[in-house]
Amino acid sequence: QVQVVESGGGMVQAGGSLRLSCAASGSTSSRYAMAWFRQAPGEGREAGAAIAWRGSSTYYADSVKDRFTISRDNAMNTVYLQMNALKPADTAVYYCAAAAVFYSNSYTYYTPDYYYRYWGRGTQVTVSF
Fold first, then answer.
1. What is the mean pLDDT of residues 52-64?
2. For strand 31-39 and strand 45-51, is the pairing parallel, antiparallel, or unpaired?
């Protein structure tokens, strides 16, 4: 079993920055692809960014490309989301998710949420005008 805990959310003005962290604990001897999903009020959940076990493979939604950066430290079992130039449209609950992968998929990231078995409880990000 793997536990996933997010931190780093909060309130910021438009144009500001926040850094989210996601710590995984428990059965972390396996390889995990990770992702940050977000869900705005009244909207569905979307993958904002995803990263393979081998951190060189990453994905960004068009809405966050060139503003957000996902990275990971496998030694620390931690994934980060650096969010710059934040907009009010980025206001959402941000969820971290983990999916165990085989060695052959070490460079694969996943965007559909059904790939992910382990989820954090989410952290609120609010961007004001």
1. 95
2. antiparallel
